[in-house]
Amino acid sequence: MRIYIGFDDTDILGSEFGTGKLVRRFEQKLPAGYRVWGVVRQQLLVDPAIPYTSHNSSACMVVDVNSPSSGAELIALAALHLERTALAGSDPGLCLAAADQPALAALRDFGLWCTARIVTQDEARRAAAGAHLSSHGGTGDGIIGAAAAVGLTASGWSGRFIEFSGLRNFPATTTVGDLARTGIRTVSLDRDAFAPRPDDRVDTKGWLRPRLWGGQAVLPVNPVGPGLWEIVGGKRNQHKTKKKED
Fold it and tell me: pTM of the full predicted structure?
């Protein structure tokens, strides 16, 4: 069974790590029998009326489990991780839903709303009815991004992976075949739609972050030479603002 665990609003201005790193560290707290499929960063609406630190993003860990009863254990573990790791002054929120829960339909819609307009805690609670949603400090606003992270990730068509099959261990230049062996599909965005071949090289610019497209890890690339591709986009500079990050 697949379970989606959304986290949001766990750091403050000037902190050494953000929500993404906190979520990735949660994998170390999982007992045997739990397999992390990936961690996906979700971008939410950036608006002056929304408090955030840098980019107003949240993150969702996708975990595969053998038992339907694993949800309760994951909630307890995730809540403890938040309470021990989230920084004082932040507004941590947690959302958890299994792939077979009816609540996912409303959470998917809610996630899309969070990319287009300002939403409220009450809207988050209504969308998460039947799933788990909890605040773990501060104003409680973290439940908004946490619920959105679950909904957008469960849709299968939003976000970028910040963890997937050891993506941080890849060299700056790798091959299409090596990526495929870890479950990352390389897709050309060139207008002529040439297909990358297994032996072709991919310049990741030292920042391999596949997109979540069609429920898969997909790496969009453009051709830069014979048998050579480069990723679309790249790492941007982290310009901190005076707002609190989600």
Answer: 0.91
